[in-house]
Structure formats: C-alpha cells, structure tokens
Amino acid sequence: MIWYPYTPQKGYKEPILIKRATREFLYDENDIEYIDAVSSWWISIHGHNHPEIIKSVKQEIEKLDQVLLAGFTNTKALELAEKLIEFSENNFHTVFYSDNGSCAVEIAIKIAYQSFYNKNIKKNIIIKFSESYHGDTIGAMSVGGNSKFNLPFKDFFFPSKEFLSPDCYNCPVGKKKERCKEECLEKLENYVINNHSEIFAIIMEPLIQGANGMKIYKKDVLKKIDSLCKKFDIIFILDEVFTGFGRTGSKFAFMEADVKPDIIALAKGLSGGVLPIAATLINKKIYDNFFSERIEDTFFHGHTMTGNPSACSAALASIEVFEKENRIEDIKILEFYLKKYIKQLYEKYPNLILSPRVLGAVCAFELSDSFNPGEFKNHLLEKKIIIRPLGNTIYIAPPYIISNDSLIKIFHSIDIVLNDFTLL
Fold first, then answer.
1. In the sheet that 362-367 helps form, which strands lie side by side, from edge to edge?
2. 54-324 — its CATH code?
3. Where do the structural domains in the chain lie, given as residue ranges?
4. Is the per-residue pLDDT at 147 higher than 90?
5. CB 56 within 8 A of CB 314
6. How confident is the model at residue 149 (pLDDT cuts 50, 70, 90)?
7. What is the torsion angle, in degrees rounded to the nearest 10, for the CA atoms of residue 295, residue 299, residue 300 and residue 304?
8. What sign for the dihedral angle of Cα 37, 38, 44, 46?
9. pLDDT average, residue stretch 168-194
C-alpha cells in the first residue's frame, strides 16, 4: 500500500485514481474531468503533458537513461546549466543539481556555511522567518517557521534566529499598507547591525510565503534585506522553488523586486511538472570560495540521480516553451482575471472572504472561522475543482495556460459553495 503524504493514516477517504491529463484537466478512471486549480502542487505551469516537453524526454531517454555526474557528465546537464544561467540573466555563475526543492534549499544552506568555513571564518547563525516553509528534510525544516509540518522534529533542528514574517495583508506590527515603512524589519535590522559577524546567511521566500498561507509582501522588504546582506557580508538565499518560473509575474521573484541574491533554490516549475529535478544557482563570489585544489575546500554533497539526462531534457524543453509561448504575457492575463473574479466574490461575501490578494498567477484569501476549510475543499471537489487549503487559506495557483472558461467555472463553483453556506 502507499503511505500518502500529509494524510492521517486512519479513516482517510480513498484517493481518486487519475489515469490521464492534458492542459488544466485531470481525468479519473471513469474519464470524469477535474480542473487542477493548484497545478498539482504548483508544478504544471504549462498545463499537463505539454507535447514539446514529452517529446524532448522521449528523444533523450532513448539515447541515455542515466550516468553519474562525478567524473562524467552529459550533454543535457551541460546545456541546462548554461540555459539556467542565461535565463536568470547571468546573475549566477554555477548550477548544482538535485531532485527536489528541500534538497535544493539544503544545498544552498550548506554552500553558504562552507563558503565562510573555507575562508577560515566562523559564522554559525542563519536568519529565518516565522511563517516560512522551505521543505520537509531536517535542514529545510530548521530554517522554516514553526508549523504542523515540523512540530515533531524540533529537537533535531540546527540553531537559527527567527524574525516575524512580513505580510502586507495582515501586518505583524499593525501598519496599514499606505503608511508602511517596513517597520516589520526594525528588529531584524537591529539584530544584524549588532551580530553580523556571526551571521552567515538570511533565507526567505521572495514576495510570497507559500505553504504557510500564501502571505504576500512588498518588494521594498526584499530590497532592504538585500541591502543589509551586502553591507554586512551576509549571504542572501532566496527559495524560489515556488516563485520561480513566472509564478509572481516575472521569470523569478528576485527580478520582480530588482534584487541580487547570492544563491537561489529552484524546483517545481523547472521541468513543467514532467520529471523531478531541482537546481541551486550560486554567484561567482560564493563559488570562488570553493575554487581550490585543496580537498578540504571541496563541497562533499551529491545525489544519485543528479543531472539525470531525461530530467534535464524536460527542464530545457520547459524553459524553451516558457520563452517561445510567451508565458509572461499569459501570466499578466491570468493575473488580470484573478483580480477581477476575486473582487467580485469579495464584494458579494465580505464576511466570508478575508484578505483577498493576487500576485502574478496566485490568488488567495482566508475563509472566516465559521467555515471549515476541509468541507470547503470537499464541496469544490464535488464540482470537479481541485484545491488544497493551507489551514484556513484558500488559494488558486493554476497552470498559466488555463482557459478563461475554466477560471470562470472555478470562481462560479466557489460562489455556489459560499452561497449555500449563507443559506444554512
């Protein structure tokens, strides 16, 4: 039997068996059609089974299934590294491959720490944020905020320093957006000024904190932290696992905010959801701390399937599709309609929909406490709409190519569920 993730092991409903997929649609064993309103955990950015990506994988796997990326390499891994550096507008120098977002983040943390170690500089503090989520491995959990994801494992975490997460829709220091001067960062700034000699990195999700509630904050927050890191020689790590490849409206969220992180972690949309692959991109300043013949300066980290040719081929094809089919324009159109439809719902149900917000290809809101999120999800599933609430946060993060008809169906279904609730 399968141990399904994030699922109580007793009394859960038997999962729906999906047999095929295309665009924003999933089809079960009875050929019933569902709209995938969350891109299957945020990865199917081009929709399911994009023919160009599938074709690329088929062509590669017929030539080379796998080769270790130590003492050997492969063409697709080389081509993808070059493409990623170009796609990120040459802000980075080197690509380190892995196969999931948690590992991409752990690699970023280890590289940041060892870059000072290799210079014989002792820095032991990493700064994190209270509502962050970076993955489910021990290192990734150590730099995440406290939540149900990591509660049982707290005693295993390495030390970190936590500060309140920025949140422009539910400000942690009670400011209104129009009067905000990034007061939420005052304690962080003071701490960095007084302790910068001990801090090796600051890690955060740029512009949207995803799995802990789709918390959106303004670009000036990133700019201030970026400036702090540069002033005090602290490595700035951005977890772009969710935000990368267009989710916030630009190729990467750091570009949207016009900052220059030292390291970024990528996964999810990297292959368009076709095969597992992740990458950690490092700038030249950090890489130079490992550019040495000394064995002690080597980064001893690797994964068995690192740089798998088929996965790299899928990622290459996904980036080519992103550019050729002009996904940035698709996201602008999607953002327009998300704002339009959530505004209509909010005006109709101001007591049930709280803090509605949209950024790029993400729409989110909180349900009032009177509504059970699990029941809400089940009611939408009955209408063949797939969502996954985050606590009482409801979000829509569909494939960028979703049709307007499907968007209308999603929001109309939400309308029906909310209306039925008001009639109870």
1. 353-359, 362-367, 393-396
2. 3.40.640.10
3. 54-324, 326-422
4. no
5. yes
6. confident
7. -130
8. positive
9. 90
Token reading at 59: 């062509």
Strand 33-36 and strand 385-386: the pairing is parallel
CA atoms within 13 A on the CB side of 389: 19
Structure tokens at 194: 């007084």
**d(C-alpha 282, C-alpha 95), whole Å:** 6
Q: What share of the chain is helix, strand, coil (3-state, %, to 5)?
A: 40, 15, 45
Task: Quote the pTM value.
Answer: 0.96
Amino acid at 396: I
Query: Distance (Å, rounded) from C-alpha 331 to C-alpha 225?
Result: 27
Angle at 360 between CA 229 and CA 210, to 5 degrees: 60
Instruction: Please state, as a whole number, how many other Cβ atoms lie within 10 Å of the Cβ of residue 328.
Output: 14
Query: In terms of Cα–Cα distance, which of 119, 113, 111 is closest to 95?
Result: 111
* Alpha-carbon distance values, 169 to 181, 246, 335, 411 (Å): 14, 22, 18, 21
Q: What single DSSP character describes residue 48?
A: B
Indicate whether 359 pLDDT > 70.
yes
Q: Does the domain made of 326-422 have the CATH classification 3.90.550.10?
A: no
How many whole angstroms from its chain centre is CA 371? 27
